[in-house]
Design brief:
By secondary structure, the chain is mainly α. The chain is built from 3 helices and no strands. The model has no long low-confidence stretch (mean pLDDT 85).
Length: 103
Amino acid sequence: GKVFSWRRFFQVTEVLLLLLGAGLLTTAIDKLIGLDYIPTLIDPIWSSAALFDDATPWGGFIAAFTSYRAQPALITVLVWLVYAAATRYWLRVPRTHIGHARG
């Protein structure tokens, strides 16, 4: 608690967990596309492999952790946008204390 506050610690870990969740969701979508359970709609919708390729070892590590894809399918981007909107909404909703007695 002397280096930085607990509040800052939990803010940083919250962001890291949200990025990890997005990475897991994107990996699941990629696997469902590979099994032909969901369509790609448009594949790929862009290519940023020239800037940062997710097929390299370092790029693969970053892609797994942050859900980055150099050549994403449209369905992947749409699912990621829904995830981002849902988490943004969830983080903005006022929190109530569970078990708090009401007066």
